[in-house]
């Protein structure tokens, strides 16, 4: 079967998420070939095509989407441009992978999800933590009863972006209206991941604050007014009563202040950590488990069955994106649903709306009816995702080589 042609919009040859993750993933997967790239300027588009080996270079995303050699459009532009680029690709009848957030608002996301459904194409959103082999291992282990009943989860989720200094490329993130800040991105990824692991989180108490209302542009010294939130605290419960709390903030320093989550259950405790400040969806993760009644922590091993990509792609920040793209190729060729898709994105947009309402009113708020997404072990499983077996068959035998943990 011939490889699928990929067109990447936002394929800067100098910096950005496409350069860091999507382009290496496409180059390393046999299911794809890079057919076209697009940037905002002719010279960078031509250079990107030369550097990455694309057959065509564009400055107009609509022209890229109209290229008959392009089967899948990958959208890696700034959030305010997502909706326009995605809509053009959908109207051209192309499959779409769009980075999170899907739109500036829930209404934009709902409109794009409806259009994608009408066009009958496969659609994916970049909630790539769901493609992490380690997180898939943990999800399956939790479903199998590793912790028994999960009573609570406490997550600390800092990110290095934002803060009092921003470079020109990140200048736009100071404006809350541009939807590229701690609430939408960092909190969004964290809530989605925890909901995928534990079960949907739909009702929230929250505090959202702007604690650093000014920032300096690194290259120019320009002073910026910051309206984007930099501190978010959320509490929620899953359908079966697990109590979840999240503190997300921007401006984290590279001093070991990384993502950490502790899961407390009737049969033991689990700790999940990242190695950097770019977010749990991007950084390398590690996990440790301590059975109830013991003081000995054991390192969790990733189940090798959850790796879907060749060895050269098994390093972050490429790994999770490559895993997602590999599954997306299967969905495109088989005509099956991919998850997380635009329906999943709409559900997360609605959850973040509920968080904002809770913070504004001081009262608990719920997201309403769910659209898309696959519940975690606390609820009923749906199709798709990178999950293991469902049910609750009791704790895994940690002495088994196929189990989740080994001695630390």
UniProtKB/TrEMBL annotation:
Gene3D superfamilies: Dihydrodipicolinate Reductase, domain 2 (3.30.360.10), NAD(P)-binding Rossmann-like Domain (3.40.50.720)
UniProt KW keywords: Oxidoreductase
Pfam families: Gal80p_C-like, GFO_IDH_MocA
Region called Disordered, residue ranges: 360-408
Domain Gfo/Idh/MocA-like oxidoreductase N-terminal: from-to ranges: 5-126
Compositional bias segments (type: Gly residues): 370-393
Top-level taxon: Bacteria
Gal80p-like C-terminal domain span: 138-274
The UniProt record lists the keyword Thylakoid: no
Protein name as annotated: Gfo/Idh/MocA family oxidoreductase
Species this chain originates from: Actinacidiphila epipremni
